[in-house]
Amino acid sequence: MLLYIPIIFLSALFMQNSLPSRGLLGLIEGVNIRNSNMLVASDFLFISLVVFNLFGNCEKYLYGYGKYELLRYKKRTLILGKIILKSFLSVCVFCLTRIIIYAFLLFIRNEKIIDFTVADISNYIFTSILSLFFISILQILVELKFSSFAGVITAFSYYIVSTILGGYFIEKEQYFPLLFLTTNFSMKNRTDLISADFVDLYILYLILAFAIIVCIFLCRKIIKQKDIF
């Protein structure tokens, strides 16, 4: 994790340099509606850490020496649960580390840090963890079904497509497609428009939870049927 801190620092620096002078609210608001290239790049840099941190976590149990650990268990779902728990904890650590580093960078640059409400920061933490956790579960699902490389490509592709299309649909005031583009859920300047004109913010939480549960169910089904011999 210590090796990732400089990259999270760079991601926060890129984001702050592309925003007007502001505190943590800049991080909470996320990529602006017009898809600023610098903001998208800073977010992509952060997402890449989460994705590569999980690279090969499933595949190591399906091939080579790792498969013998899988065979020791009566239920393969125990291994899956271990992988999912590690994924969730990693996402939590990454999200909280990003907030701390972003605030620290504001401090050393003599910028205002607290310019948000408790609801703002709590919603950001909750939706960030859930949206990143969904991407990680999606990565696990594809890795179990195909390969670790396919899992990484899928996770990256989903993030890029979801973020860029999110900005496009909001500019066109077409909010329904955003319900299927979950990376936008943690960006306040997007969810404010969605919740005000289309659907309540808590419905977005339910959508994320439902998507995660479905992916976990599919992961469980795949790993139970996986031929590892």
UniProtKB/TrEMBL annotation:
<protein>
    <submittedName>
        <fullName>DUF2705 family protein</fullName>
    </submittedName>
</protein>
<feature type="transmembrane region" description="Helical">
    <location>
        <begin position="202"/>
        <end position="219"/>
    </location>
</feature>
<feature type="transmembrane region" description="Helical">
    <location>
        <begin position="44"/>
        <end position="63"/>
    </location>
</feature>
<feature type="transmembrane region" description="Helical">
    <location>
        <begin position="121"/>
        <end position="142"/>
    </location>
</feature>
<feature type="transmembrane region" description="Helical">
    <location>
        <begin position="83"/>
        <end position="109"/>
    </location>
</feature>
<keyword id="KW-0472">Membrane</keyword>
<dbReference type="InterPro" id="IPR024295">
    <property type="entry name" value="DUF2705"/>
</dbReference>
<keyword id="KW-1133">Transmembrane helix</keyword>
<feature type="transmembrane region" description="Helical">
    <location>
        <begin position="149"/>
        <end position="170"/>
    </location>
</feature>
<keyword id="KW-0812">Transmembrane</keyword>
<dbReference type="Pfam" id="PF10920">
    <property type="entry name" value="DUF2705"/>
</dbReference>
